[in-house]
Amino acid sequence: MKERIIELLTNALPMVNLESDFLFSELDSLGVTTILMLLSEEYGITLEAKDATPKNLKTIDSIIRMVEEKLGRNA
Amino acid sequence: MLTLEEHIEHFAKLTPNKAAVIWGNETLSYSSLWKRIQEKANLLKGEGLSEGKSHVFISKQNADFIVTYCATHHCGGICVPLESSTPKERQQQIREEVNGKCLNGECSDILYTTGTTGKAKGVMISAKAWNANAENLIDRLGFTHDLLFIVCGPLNHLGSLSKIYPTLMTGGTLYIMESLKDLNAFFSVFELPFTKFATFLVPSSIRMLLQIASKNLAAVASKIDFIETGAAAISQSDMESLCKILPHSRLFNTYASTETGIICSYEFSKYGCEPGLLGKPMKHSSVRINEEGRVVCSGQTIMTGYVGAPELTAQVLRGGEIYTSDIGNIDENGMLHLLGRQDDVINVGGYKVNPSEVEEAVSSFPLVADCICIPSQHILLGTVPKLLYVSKQDKEVKPKDIADFLKGRIENYKIPLLYESVDAIKHTYNGKLDRKAYQKN
Predict the structure, then answer these.
(1) Complex ipTM, two decimals?
(2) Chain B residues closer than 8 Å to A6 by CB
């Protein structure tokens, strides 16, 4: 999953350093929305504004945890 | 004509404890704001700021901006607020460009923009123009003392800066946000004890809210007095969706630019959703269409000129009229309809990007042999810059490498969001980039 998410986000947000430990601070509002929309579509989950917290978007690993949690809830 | 500072001083006496500016968990009352402005003005005077001198500073999204902005004017100085991502070399160029060039008393601010001519330059705006902009907005949009206006765009741009005036001139309250990135923070503003909220959102921000936050928006619908959009085209479907979610709010589409000031606004929630329809001119503004179909604006809101560039100024400002690059028409009701642009400038959510500047910056990237920057459609942002590029000697060049290279060389909003590696770039017979060949991309 990690490779796929990195591939998706690298293509969509080429300016963002996805390896950052402070990913949320690197994003602008478009970046946040792009992540939510791309991952919602890719994994068939619903990510909304309430999911766009600094904690959920802190690192690529925290993004993966958010997706896994949503997938778990949907299962 | 009272200045913005004099309005703040007035409300500091009339309603001293009322919140003037809120950001994060902090609040400045009118009396505290006025005190901070006076203190900062003394500091700036001590540093040598005086009548007609420019004060270049990096724009911050908090009350410091308001304090510095008003204090500079209080000293008689000229504000030159810059985007935080402005490269240092460019900052120095701007300092040299504005130094001592604006002493005619017709300039209170210099805002840097790509704007009408496609080249980055400083637009001089007078205090009189700011007042006319404010009166236009108060009259058409209805700013009042009990309103909390949320600023979530950059304060060094007309879209947000122009809202400071009508809000503080009517004794209202400003809420300043860094951006719309933290939507939870945005919606938490509506929990503050105010009865009327308003904001300015570019069309891409409206689309973003509709895509991922429509439930949150519906939940605060009864509190939203009005939303103004502008700076770029908003789609009919987004206008209609917004009207459905906010059935009791007033929704405006405004025509403005740094050079023209705020010219027209159309209440699409009341009169119907039609893309490109921008309404009648406001009280201090006039608009006409010239023989080429270009939108020509006049009135008290227009700029004084481009700093240090009389020839460029003469290309755009003639006989008290601004000749924009926008193509439009005026209907039988006197309403302005915008149809497109006449030049190559790419309008990215209100930010104007000159593709030549992007191509020039990319040309110094050692692994790219040729490139062209063209407008392309993004699902959220609408129009964005896309870079088509040819790699040198078949070496693989990743978009991220180019984007990283451009950081610090040009402002962030100018860096292309979309990339495509191609075998060749089309040129005209005389070697120029063939932009027309890519117009349908």
Answers:
(1) 0.74
(2) none
DSSP 8-state class, residue B220: T
Mean pLDDT over each residue of chain B, to the nearest integer: 91
* Greater model confidence, B159 or B102: B159
Residue B243 to residue B311: CA distance in whole angstroms: 45
Residues in chain B within 8 Å Cβ distance of A45: none
Q: Cβ separation of B180 and A29 shorter than 8 Å? A: yes
Q: How far apart are the first and last CA of chain A?
A: 17
Interface of B with A in 146-185 (CB under 8 A): 179-184
- Cβ contact B181–A27 (<8 Å): yes
Angle in degrees, 0-180, between the axes of helices A29-43 and B203-212, rounded to the nearest 10: 40
Confidence band for B439, pLDDT divided at 50, 70 and 90: confident
Residue of A30, A46, A48 best to disrupt the B interface, most CBs of B under 10 A: A30
Q: Pick from B272, B78, B422, B61: which is nearest to B69 by CA?
A: B78
Query: Does pLDDT of B441 surpass 50?
Result: no
**Domains along chain A with CATH numbers:** 2-74 (1.10.1200.10)
Burial code of B400-437, b = ≥16 C-beta within 10 A, e = fewer? bebbebbeebbbbbbbbbbbeeeeebeeeeeeebebee
Query: Residue B62 is encoded by which pair of tokens?
Result: 């908090």
CA gap B267, B252 in Å, rounded: 4
* Residue position matching structure tokens 């007042």: B131
Contact B212 A52 (CB under 8 A): yes
Residues 6+ apart with CB under 8 A from A1: A64, A67, A68
Nearest chain A CA: its distance from B10 CA (Å):
37
Q: What are the structural domains, with CATH classification, of chain B? A: 4-341 (3.40.50.12780), 346-438 (3.30.300.30)
Q: What is the pLDDT of residues B136-166, one digit of tens each?
A: 999 999 999 999 999 999 999 999 999 999 9
> What is the distance between the alpha carbons of residues B106 and A61, in angstroms, rounded to a whole number?
54
